Records
---
Amino acid sequence: MKSFPTIFRHALGLLALATAALAAAPAQLSDDTAEDLGKVKAQADAQNWDAAGGIIDTRLAKVDAESYDAAVLLQIGAQLRLQKGAPGESVKPLARSLELADKHGYFEPVARTQMAYLLAQLEFQDAMAAKDPEAGAARTADAIRLMDRWSAEVPKAQFDGVFFHASLLYTAGSGAKPKPDEAILKKALVQVDNALLLVVRPPENLYQLKVACLQQLGRSAEAAETLEQLVELKPTESAHWTQLVGAYVGAAATAKDAKEATMYNVRAILAIERAQKQGFMTTSKDRFNLIGIHFNIQQFDRAITLLSEGLKQGTIENERKNWELLAYSYQQIGRDAEALKTLEEAAKIFPQAAQLEYQIALLQQTMDRPAEAIIHLRRCIEKGGGDTPHSVYLFLSYLALEQKAFEEARTAAANAMKYPEGMKEGERLKKAAEDMLAARNLSETSRRNSL
């Protein structure tokens, strides 16, 4: 949308057009009003805006409020306030002039149409400046009503007007409470598409407006199509690439089936790789997002390559969760030994991370290494017990029972019972350990007696 200084320069031209159309109107000014307008012109030529406005106001007080003279005086008064740089003061006189013109047939239709266009712009400026959201929404609604009229009346669609109309509708639709108004947003999208047909090379902000409409409507796939046009138009703009990837990810999230979701995820991957060739989306977060998308479509081999290289080269943040993800990726493709090596390396980098010891123990058990698993469970307990200490104690108790370390199994079970989540299973394991101890003691007693 144009900046308001530009709008005002355009607005003065519209008012000049309206003023020129007065001569063709069926009504005529009174001699007194015509004489005073001559005085207004002299003051305006000297840029004495207040003096010119004073003459208008004095004359308005003397004429019939419904007269042609009033309509002209109000219209020129609005023009003077624009010239003065007080657009907010132009709204009421311009609105009243248009009201009189519509009611009595004053001015030519083309002049009234252009006055409606200018008034819509002024109403919207006031809406944006309003401190009360409800008042702002009401002014925006007034501006939309005026632009609906303009669209219906203008003989030939004009790009600036159609674009402005679309912007108004988007503002109203996206700002609606408690949620965006889809009906208004769809109307905005119609105007955007109309605007796209009016210029050979549409401006970047028109594409952005279309993207915004589509995203508000949850139509991510269509937003991505428009963003593809934007990155082709301006591949050096990093924000376009970020939006494009986000649109493809959004389309994947709302896809109707797995095949379609995979297609959009692959496009997101390609978009990131294209952006990186342009020098964008190279942050650690961006690289991790790329890995995440590979992970989502179960391309674990590629995720492993990117993640391991990133951790080694420092392009992926050296965080525990990233090492855990790398290990998990190895497990997903059956490479348990490499998963174990990854976790052990992580444990050296993060020596106080008890949870890593627990994960190593779980993997050791999967690989049928219970003795090694017990060692890491003990280390986990020494470091604080990890995220769920009761699980660690229960696991240790279970493995200790298997290894016939009944005293350790009983102690671990008793410790698990200190947590509400471990009470029931801990009690069962503790009883099992005590039964095993009792049976072993009885066996030893019997053996000694037999000797």
---
Amino acid sequence: MTSLLSVSGLSINFGGLAALSGLDLEVGEGAIVALIGPNGAGKTTVFNVLTGLYRPSHGRVTFRGDDLLALAPHAIARRGIARTFQNTEVFRRLSALDNVLIGRHAHLEGGVLGGALALPRVRSEETRARRDARALLDLVGLRAAAGVEAASLPLGHQKRLEMARALAAEPALLLLDEPAGGLNGRAARDLARPGGDRGLPGGARVVSALLELHGVSVSYGKRRALEDASLTVGAGEIVALLGANGSGKSTTLRMISGLVRPSRGRIDYEGRDITTWPPDGIVAAGLVHVPEGREIFSEFTVLENLLVGGHTAPSREVASRLERALAMFPVLRERQRQPGGTLSGGEQQMLAIARALMAAPRVLLLDEPSLGLAPRLAREIFRVIERINADGVTVLLVEQNARHALAVAARGYVLETGRIVMTGTSRALTADPRVRAAYLGG
């Protein structure tokens, strides 16, 4: 196993007390290593040395071959080491979401000036950071606590929040200092229990699915459009489905939304088999489809199109949903009384997405949202997709523009002639020479 961290001859004294004396240890890539000992044995001292809070009197520490002992704590964090603390150290007056965002700061590149000027790149970066932070809260079981002040969380939840904040730094090495300290047996067991199946910052993976396809096949007459396709979408993810025309991408979304039926296989949503559910039942459950070509009602006004999208909403929620949709797309607010068919292509795409948002989706199925749009409008649509996801909506994205899709997605699947031939994190797919040659222009 390749060595990630190497410690040799580490010693440190506090006055006349030898807290560490000649410590040697190795941590391999991908390993879980336990540091065990009674109170006062020096366990936390080791972590404080590794993160730059203490300077040892003797010894050497290398991380991925680099000497750590000369680096400041923030520089060590940037190298890829993150930690939690024995005595929980959350920012008590900040929300859970803001605590996790603080852990993400080392990877934000916009700077103070970019933030002050609200540059588009900075806004996109912030949107992605909020999306990743929500995904991490979901991972540790704190999705519902995003807006809750950290001080009001029970100790077990504060421990989870510390883990999420540490993971936000995309560490290669995570140091957990007494993660179950102060917890009762049940809380400690809950802390150790895995989470879901979703892509996370840096390509980390966890395990439980919101939407799953199990070996599904679809035929149109004698033509097989999908063949034994399986995929997983975790809560809070953006997952991209890539492929050439005719590969089965749109068929996949039409099948999930109940417009076509698989001849074989099963579709699970929130653990329920929805394979034979009618389309209206699927929408009511939170799976909402924005089809290729937009398919707005051309003769209806913008407002009427949106109200059609919200026809299943309780009457008391229609106004608030309408306001959220118009806030997402200010241009639609200006054109509320204008027939949908008179809008530009980009505005019609915005209307199609806004109409879907009126149904308050938990999962948004987007089919070629940038099709036919100028590059500037396409970039705006993808920024909107990131904002929607940052608000907690899971997205399954069908898109021929693989570069844009992989830039916003956590993971992706590649379809060829109805079969899924490749899957991986967006980072891995972007680097794959086959994907680059076929979909990214070399």
---
Amino acid sequence: MTPPLTSATLEASPNIGAVAPKQPEIPTHYILGIRFHSLQLNQALDIIDHFIAERTPHQISFSNAQTIALCQKDPELQRIINQSHLNLADGMSIVWGAQMLGLKLPERVAGPDLMNALCQCATEKNYRIFLLGSTPSNLLNLKDVLMKRWPSLPLAGMYSPPIRDRFNGNENEQIIHCVQAARPDILFAGISCPKQEYWIAENLQQLNVPVCLGVGAAFDFLSGRIPRAPEWLRRRGLEWLFRLSREPRRLWKRYLLGNLIFLSLLAREKIKFKVHKTFKKPR
């Protein structure tokens, strides 16, 4: 069992006990059976502020073309994502797919970008954060990068779990105990999709963290272990191609097959949408 790298228990956040303002209704759209919340990054930050003030556990998910492809053969994953308190479009293909269906998603909100913005917010508002995932060495590198950028970042603790599809009972108890002792406001889980979505959903109430996010490869990007695509490629929806060129043997199935499945499903949905509109036209 990998021991926690740190487990700092600091003073509780001053936000505890704050009265949460009434949360505005969030517009949602269903794309190929997956519910997406129609938010810009700054709007997502406002909603997360509300979640933290509420002090009740919330799960935040990120979905892209690969996620939708996985959900076609995994109804339980689809249920978990659709029951998340926020599910954000982590891919320009989702934004463009929504437009093809006449729906509005204002922008892509990727896990690394939201994590970066939340670290800034944590520094300003004293939100305590916890890092769960990656290898011990990369987690230490990530800590160094974050603390250099935000020296006053309230890092409550971090933990590198065993690399396996599912933690055994003792491992899971150790992780939960470490998180509970640290009392974070925000838990970033970087343990890959769909493992992180399952784990958060199964342990959300016991963790009792106001906001739990499954951020996937964000730890690797922010630590510098894996270079991220340039901004101009991300704006054009080609970050997947950049990653594929860097790790073709590991990622070809995820991106090539995932994107093909997504595009075929989207084309079928577009045809159904057109047929439905045709038959609804008044004669």
---
Amino acid sequence: ILGHSERRAYFGEDDELLAKKVKTAIEKGLKVIFCFGEELEDRKSDNHFAVVESQLKNALFDLDASAWSKIVLAYEPVWAIGTGRTATPEQAQEVMAGIRAYQAGFDASLAEQLKLLYGGSMNASNAAELLAQPDIDGGLVGGASLKTDDFYAICQSAG
């Protein structure tokens, strides 16, 4: 997992460093879950698309098309991680569809193949609605994965 907000915040991992880490991981045969997401201020000022597009462009868009088969994207709005707050299914879908559209501007076939996860306080009570969205392919589950019954319910929601 690369690009998680806590690594960005506490260890100063910026897009340039993450680009190097992603490239190295893929060269070494690893698969990457790449996390991205906006702060609450970015969401409130309607700047969230610019933030996530910048994170993806700066860290990933110089990769060869073949590398994308080894990358899973995980949208984790920073304001929702571990806070109990979750993006609404509509907010999450809006960002996921925006990412596909942004990628389609560079490579339409690649955009369709993107694997997109939602993270950010996914839990047993909201998983079904989130996972029902057309551009959400799965979840990156944090705290709820530590509670057996909750995690089982999330897995059941995935079908």
